[in-house]
Design goal:
Layout (H helix, E strand, L loop, with lengths): L2 H17 L27 H6 L3 H13 L3 H10 L6 H17 L2 H15 L3 E3 L5 E3 L3 H22 L6 H17 L9 H9 L8 H11 L6 H15 L4 H7 L7 H16 L3 H9 L15 H4 L3
Antiparallel strand pairs: 1-2
Helix pairs in contact: 1-13, 3-7, 3-11, 4-10, 5-6, 7-8, 7-9, 11-13
Length: about 300
């Protein structure tokens, strides 16, 4: 076996380890090319396609799960109405499928994903440990989940992406995401990077809770992950923790060690080398008849590779 085969084998092992935890839900864009020309919710000139399509989004997803747990009513809804303990990879895959569909899907695929979320949230209601009523459909709770995810993807990209966005590009990304938040019925929806980061960091409803402690403990040691995947996951977890504001780290009981940001950058670089940009981004570019940039996608899709006949 030559050096090239050895390197390719190593790349394939990294790719398999990175994508296997997300294989527990149906790929949401399997028919996306039938919606020829449909730009979806954001379109090819959006910052959303750029931000969500980079490997830094792995860190953003972990960061969002940590911070979302700081809201007692939101985390109570997850703890009491979700099977994430028994089927964590299934829940992770469904969340990934939702992000993929709403970011890169044609509008019928976006609407299907939104409808599925609304259906799943309808029965999620109850009372938290501090006696506060909650409902997943409440605009404020929907805003917490949505805004934290938006802020987390952006912060992760700024820390670990290939090059930081300008202030105008950051604001464009956040403004684009208000379209998705509105479809979810979320309110409020800050439309600037500073606005959303301040809203998340200084949210008045955050507090310690049993659900928060259980979620953080689970994220520290997700037993469902294969041992070969855990080392890479922990690198991404440490990278995510390093980006969480100090006041939220203190509340969550998580601590960043020196060097976590550096190690996180190395981990994301390795993922970017192995995976390239998201193939869903590639599919969306094909659907909208856009040129496919050289070197951006590892296994570059073209109309010929998808339909050789």
């Amino acid at each position: 076996m030559g050096l090239r085969d050895t390197v390719e084998g190593y790349r394939q092992r990294i790719t398999d380890a990175a994508v296997s935890p997300f294989d527990y839900a149906e790929f949401p864009l399997s028919r996306t090319l039938t919606y020829h020309g449909d730009p979806g919710l954001f379109g090819p000139d959006s910052m959303t396609w750029r931000v969500v399509g980079d490997s830094a989004a792995f860190v953003g997803g972990v960061r969002a799960l940590l911070i979302q747990a700081a809201h007692p009513e939101v985390v109570a809804g997850v703890s009491e109405h979700s099977n994430y303990r028994e089927d964590p990879l299934g829940r992770l895959s469904r969340t990934s499928s939702y992000v993929t569909a709403t970011s890169y899907g044609a509008m019928p695929e976006v609407e299907t994903a939104i409808g599925a979320v609304r259906q799943a949230h309808r029965p999620v209601r109850g009372t938290s440990h501090r006696g506060q009523a909650y409902s997943a459909g409440h605009p404020g709770m929907a805003a917490w989940v949505h805004n934290v995810l938006v802020d987390s993807f952006l912060v992760a990209y700024q820390f670990y992406g290939p090059a930081p966005l300008t202030r105008a590009e950051e604001d464009q990304y956040v403004s684009e995401q208000t379209r998705l938040g509105a479809l979810l019925g979320a309110d409020p929806l800050p439309d600037t990077a500073d606005g959303i980061h301040d809203w998340v960091t200084n949210h008045p409803d955050l507090d310690d809770s049993p659900g928060m402690r259980e979620t953080v403990q689970f994220l520290r040691n997700p037993n469902e992950l294969r041992p070969t995947i855990r080392a890479g996951y922990w690198a991404l977890l440490d990278a995510a923790v390093a980006t969480v504001p100090t006041n939220l780290r203190n509340l969550l009981g998580i601590y960043s060690m020196p060097g976590n940001t550096f190690r996180g950058r190395q981990a994301v670089r390795i993922l970017r080398w192995a995976l390239g940009a998201s193939p869903s981004w590639n599919l969306a570019l094909l659907r909208t008849d856009q040129p496919i940039p050289e070197g951006l996608f590892h296994d570059r899709l073209t109309p010929d590779t998808l339909d050789p006949g």
